Amino acid sequence: MIWYMITQNVLHRPVRTLITVIGVAVEVALVILVVGLTTGLLTESAKRTEGVGADMMIQPPSASIWAAFSGAPMPISIAGRLRTLDYVQAVAPVLVQFNSVNGLDLVYGIDPDSFRAVSGGFVFHSGRDLQGPDDILVDDVYARAKKIKAGDPLHILGHDFKVAGIVEHGKGARLFVQISGLQEMSGAIDKASIFYVKCDRSDHTPAVTDEIHGLLPGYEIRPLKDFINMMTSSNLPGLSAFINVMIGIAVAIGFLVIFLSMYTTIIERTREIGVLKSLGASKGYIVKIILSETTLLCLAGTVFGIGLSYLMKTVFTSLFPAMTISILWKWIVISGLIAIVGGLLGAAYPAWVASRKDPVEALAYE
Amino acid sequence: MANATRILLSSEVRSPAREPALEPILKTENLWKIYRIGKMDVPALRGIDVEVFPGEFLSIMGPSGCGKSTLLHVIGGLAQATRGRVLLDGNDLTTMSDSARTLLRRHKVGFVFQRFNLLPTLDAYHNIALAQHIHGNGFDPHRFEAVANLLGLSQRLHHRPSELSGGEQQRVALARAIISEPKIVLADEPTGNLDTKSSESVLSLLRQLNKDLGQTIVMITHNPEAATYGNRVLHMRDGMVVNGASVH
Hints:
Chain A has 366 residues and is of the alpha+beta class. Chain A has 13 helices and 12 strands. Chain B is α/β, with parallel strands linked by helices. Helix content of chain B is 31%, strand content 25%. Classes of the chains: A alpha+beta (366), B alpha/beta (248).
């Protein structure tokens, strides 16, 4: 009976219902998309790093797991010393630069031969490998996003490159240039940011790690197996705080929407509350009606919000092909719970006010 | 109502539908209700003594502002008395908490209001069923059917209040009031918003409920003709019963 009454109430005021549902949907979509964007960024970045094909990566002491933040403080000569270690099959020095022109992208400065030895080489969609300091390789995702093809010019890092080839994505970065040229452009002569190390067999990785610890004490040696699990938002400074702030804003939106909606509702329905009281409805019964209606609105908003998230994901990824948004079931459930709990908190005061209305005054309400 | 024009005074009590029991189902003793408006105390009820016996149909008359509705609210447990006692089926409302009075209303009182007060979002069927739901004894289809038939609502149950005439709405309100078999029905100007024909219909139904089912009814009205449908009439003025009962 209560649910029938609530459903009729909700349907009886379609505009209010629609606005409330949209408010909750925006809250849910905001949470899902913010987390989806950050998770997508992390996952995609981790997958690309894993995709290099190395067994481990070496970074300077105290370097961030985010290669773009680490600069280039290691002498490239370390590569030669690493190659002398037992079980080491190949070492690829990489200089990482961060390009912020027309987007945010990592640029890998590589030595084509050593990078091929570690990664097994690029899969070319078109064009050829790097041959000169003005050549650049771009992956297919970047090429699709920027609508460029082999032979096109590309201006990044203050330099005019020529797109030598389009390669399959998933090898660390989306843009690759020769390391020597990038060293000159960035003033990091004979420096590298990362050494990718490939062992002759994967089960030798621990032994090689021990060797490198001896050779380069204090350096960060990160195995790339299960690298995805290490790429969490807590490893990126400020990202967790950003996510929490965005979730907080989303909860505040939902709270206020529900608060205003339910407060308006109980004022509109003052006389109905008086009628319920005259029939002997307890305070608990009235609170239950208000909170049940809130739950229904929040559930509808959650469903709408999930749909909105998928719609926005489709729109964003078609507009920005390089963008990755990972919509996770875990966060769909969490966002729904956040919406419902926030909504119930927002409805708590209106429900309390409704339950305490004087029945005589309520019945006389015009 | 042309054939029911004579005003009955309280001293001219008709025989109620059933012989009154010795114990009144409703009794007020020196009942006061004082409203505080700003810094002024405004007495709405000033020492009311009333007894209503099971099976009675009592009409209470009086001019606007004489305290009729306040009396109905207090004896129905919607408002708390300032002084005195209200005994409803042996329960002293003046000593009860708000929650206890709510429970008492649920089980012992049925209200009928001048403005019908049906929930606009529900059809007639659910407006009536809602009272059963709040009552908490579950839906009784036999009782429901009997009440709907008695009040001539069987064909109108799936219409919302906005689709019903005033008379039909009041019949739905009446059905809602009696569906849970209350000890007493309190009707506050039940014909105040109705035309003559609908008023006659509703009043006839009230009398029928009283006679056939022995339903105890207290009805407030300022219409002398409507009052004649009751077994007994009390007159009120300035918060006091001025005819038919003792006055403090």
